[in-house]
Design a protein that fits this description.
This protein is an alpha/beta fold. The protein has a single domain (about 5-85), classed as Response regulator (Rossmann fold). The protein is built from three helices and four strands.
Length: about 90
């Protein structure tokens, strides 16, 4: 059985690269790609089943990853999915 993954990230190059990389593994399939939380809301209405794992960027425009996770927790059955919030830490030189 394949593990379905949903990805939400506002950086299109990263989104497509991660999606392509995951698609190379025979046990994974990318069910939905979105550029922000609002875009994910719209796309979730069109897919047949909820992805097993949701990968979301914390810092996205329109609807960030934390707000998206809160929304998903409301609309999805308890324990039906796993979340992973992705963050990038930029090192500042002093």
């Amino acid at each position: 059985m394949k593990i379905s993954v949903g990805i939400a990230d506002d950086h299109q190059l990263f989104l497509k690269s991660l999606s392509l990389m995951l698609s190379c593994f025979e046990n994974f399939t990318v069910a939905v790609e979105a550029l922000n939380g609002k875009n994910l809301q719209d796309k979730m209405k069109l897919i047949q089943s909820v992805p097993d794992i949701m990968l979301k960027d914390v810092s996205m425009p329109v609807m960030n990853g934390i707000a998206t996770t809160a929304w998903l927790k409301i609309i999805l059955p308890l324990n039906s999915h796993r979340f992973l919030l992705m963050i990038a830490i930029r090192r500042l030189s002093l």
